[in-house]
Amino acid sequence: MSNPLYDNLFGKYIGAKTSFIETSDGKIITHGGFVAMASRLANVFKSMGLKKGDRIAIQVEKSVTALCIYAACVQSGIVFLPLNTGYTANEIEYFIKDSGSKLLVCDEEKLSEISLKLQDIEIELLTLNEDETGSIVELAKEQKNIFETVEANKDDLAAFLYTSGTTGRSKGAMLTQNNLLSNAKTLVDYWQFNNKDTLLHALPIFHTHGLFVAINVCLISGSKIILMPRFNVDELIHNIPKATVLMGVPTFYTRLLSKDTFNKKLCKKMRLFISGSAPLLAETHIDFEKRTSHRILERYGMTETNMSTSNPYNAERRAGTVGFPLPGIEIKITDPKTGNELPRGEIGNLEVRGPNVFVGYWNMPEKTKEELREDGFFITGDLGLMDKDGYVQIIGRDKDLIISGGLNIYPKELELLLDEQEGVLESAVIGVPHPDFGETPLGILVREKYAEPKIDKIEKIIKSQLAKYKHPRQLIVIDELPRNTMGKVQKNLLRDKYKDTFLG
């Protein structure tokens, strides 16, 4: 039976004894061993009555078994839904209800809190811990290493990835087999991956870059992976001599440069450093090249499109740009008012079309229609330009979006929560520069006439309601927000006023 994504990523490795993953404790998992574990998990899902098209959500720490769950979903025709490990039980409840997931796999430590939150929802709960223990592992031990792969075609859904929404309601981006497979194949060629490569993997596996780019590219090319549980700069430095490629976000590179032990000698086996999720400062480019003789390759992508552009492998990697549209992918810059394409050099909305572009938002037909044009172009919400040489520059973003340490934060979600708090008349959340995270959220609170916001209490409520990465680094109380003649809050003035808050 045909299942394009499984056949290209996993099926070809059945019984293979080649090295696939090296864990932090030095354990080697072969391609064949990985695929066998995935098949056992697929049998677990089948025994639970799960079938093609059902959704499985996981909120677990990074592990080999977590990746095997992804493979098992592909083999079973089940839609895979990875969730940020920082999400609270309240947030998890929304994702489960919205997606209609039949199974949630979570860490044992979170099980009681989550099960209490989901007690009125018909869903199975299994556990998986970072140390590879848990109820799903025990169930898998009882299953066979062989599973009859479920037939699928390129247009079948393979995954949901939830992305923040400007209204505070997260959107489930639906990704097909072809979305994932076509993008991975393109990147293997463009970045010249092969079976001699070793990828140093320090990214989370709940978003596009760490999962569908890094893992899929390695599977197609036969590259080995050094799987770090999470980003740790000292561990990264320890592993670099064994690797040839590193995929990261700007924070990786600024922290590497802060270490005297990070130098050219350490990087002698490396051939490629990739960065994305937020722009690199020009000085980071310069310092990195001076230190290592390597020029970081910046690319551009998002949840809805996977990767859309990249600086070239062999030609000039131009600082301040995200390179060219990838082969088979179209980029155009359009007038925000008319939607007409603009000449090179002019700033406008960045739109993307290609086999990488998602098919819509789950249960949000109106939002899908708003952002996906009938001709297939996706309106990214980013402002950009294409220079005379064809390099794409990202000039700005949806004005509300904050990208902190590579993670997307929409202020509206925070503002809705802050506005509810005692003593708060209204609020504004802005992104301000941060030396480590690129930018970070700052909460501006307007006090009520006869009451003062209780900062400690508000911070506790935020902690209980929202993932840690979304928390404002500081809350500032003022008398009123700056507004224009139409009454709209002038966040640009706030950003300018507080831009140096965390810069010393």
Characterise this structure.
The chain has 504 residues and is of the alpha/beta class. Among the domains are: 149 residues, ANL, N-terminal domain (Rossmann fold), CATH 3.40.50.12780; 105 residues, 3-Layer(aba) Sandwich (Rossmann fold); 96 residues, GMP Synthetase, Chain A, domain 3, CATH 3.30.300.30. 30% of the residues lie in helices and 25% in strands. It has 15 helices and 25 strands. It has a nine-stranded mixed beta sheet with strand order 2-1-10-9-11-12-13-14-15, with helices on both faces. Strands 4-3-5-6 form a four-stranded parallel beta sheet. Strand 13 and strand 14 form a beta hairpin. Helix 2 packs across helix 3 and helix 4 crosses helix 5. It starts with a helix and ends in a 7-residue tail after the last helix. The mean pLDDT is 93.
Number of DSSP-assigned strands = 25
Strand-residue proportion: 25-35%
- CATH C-level category of the domain at 4-152: Alpha Beta
CATH architecture classification of the domain at 4-152: 3-Layer(aba) Sandwich
The fold-level CATH name of the domain at 4-152 is: Rossmann fold
Terminal Cα span? 60 Å
Outline the biggest β-sheet. 9 strands, mixed
Q: What is the mean predicted local confidence, pLDDT? A: 93
Characteristics of this structure?
GMP Synthetase, Chain A, domain 3, 504 residues, single chain, alpha/beta
Task: Give a nutshell description of this structure.
The protein is built from 15 helices and 25 strands. It has 504 residues and is α/β, with parallel strands linked by helices. Strands 2-1-10-9-11-12-13-14-15 form a nine-stranded mixed sheet, sandwiched between helices.
